[in-house]
Specification:
Blueprint: E1 7-11, H1 20-31, E2 35-38, H2 45-54, E3 59-64, H3 69-82, E4 89-94, H4 101-107, E5 112-113, H5 119-136
Parallel strand pairs: 1-2, 1-3, 3-4, 4-5
């Protein structure tokens, strides 16, 4: 499995039309050797989860700037469970208050990268998290 590339879906849920950060992260992860699928703006949780399952991704990154992060993360995590795909790693970025981070972690969200975070940190996190996922599944 040494040649297997990490597959990541980057998504912008809801009506928020600001996707510059999502595009920067998508490009950085591609530059780090990952295969990245960017779904574009105004995605529903159902669209995101369906695309992730269809594309057989290792991780989903949600970019939320609208303040509706709790709703979207909760909805995506629930739909992944419903589809038996709860092993897909979910991480996020955007304007997310520190006080919400423990609740997101309880939901199963891996990491949240807020403004000022390094794209290199996101790539490093994903490499480690996905490698652990592959090992747990006997794929590494």
């Amino acid at each position: 499995m040494e040649d297997r590339r990490i597959r990541v879906l980057i998504a912008k849920p809801g009506m928020d039309g600001h996707d510059r950060g999502a595009k920067v992260v998508a490009r950085a992860l591609r530059d780090a050797g990952m295969e990245v699928i960017y779904t574009g703006l105004r995605q529903t949780a159902e669209m995101i989860v369906n695309a992730a399952v269809q594309e057989d991704v290792d991780a989903i990154g949600l970019s939320v700037l609208s303040g509706a992060h709790m709703h979207y993360f909760r909805e995506v995590m629930g739909l992944l469970r419903d589809k038996g795909a709860e092993d897909i790693i979910v991480f996020g970025g955007g304007i997310i208050p520190d006080q919400d981070l423990p609740t997101l972690q309880e939901l199963g969200v891996g990491r949240v990268f807020t403004p000022g975070a390094s794209t290199e940190d996101a790539a490093t996190y994903l490499r480690g998290a996905v490698q652990a996922r592959w090992q747990a599944q006997g794929e590494a």
